[in-house]
């Protein structure tokens, strides 16, 4: 069964890049342009993994993360946070007893290392 990845990122170029990367590796993809849409899609479609940008409009990645981890429907879905920020503790320092993201990946992405991390979290597509 093909694994499904939800890509939540406000940058269209990043969504297109990640979608191509995942599809080439054999994953199905769905995308959201902001955290609000991403949380809704995650609850509705139950992906096998979520990639989440930190800085986004409508609902930031941190707020989306809290929503995803706080929801019964999505709390067990692995989340990989993708960001160009180097001080992630400033954003994920206090998560109100929620677990930290399953992986933190800095942009620009090392494709091989990134796909290896995804495979560790959900298995090969």
Strand and helix layout:
Layout: E1 4-8, H1 12-24, E2 28-32, H2 35-45, E3 49-53, H3 61-70, E4 79-83, H4 89-92, E5 103-106, H5 111-122
Helix pairs in contact: 2-3
Structure characterization notes:
With 125 residues, this protein is of the alpha/beta class. It contains five helices and five strands. The protein has a five-stranded parallel β-sheet, sandwiched between helices. Helix 3 links the parallel strand 3 and strand 4. 29% of the residues are buried. The model has no long low-confidence stretch (mean pLDDT 88).
Q: What order do the helices and strands follow?
A: EHEHEHEHEH
Strand order of the largest sheet: 2-1-3-4-5
> Which stretches are poorly predicted, pLDDT < 50 over at least 5 residues?
none
Look at the structure and give the mean pLDDT. Answer: 88
Portion in beta strands = 15-25%
- What Rg is obtained from the alpha carbons, in whole angstroms? 13 Å
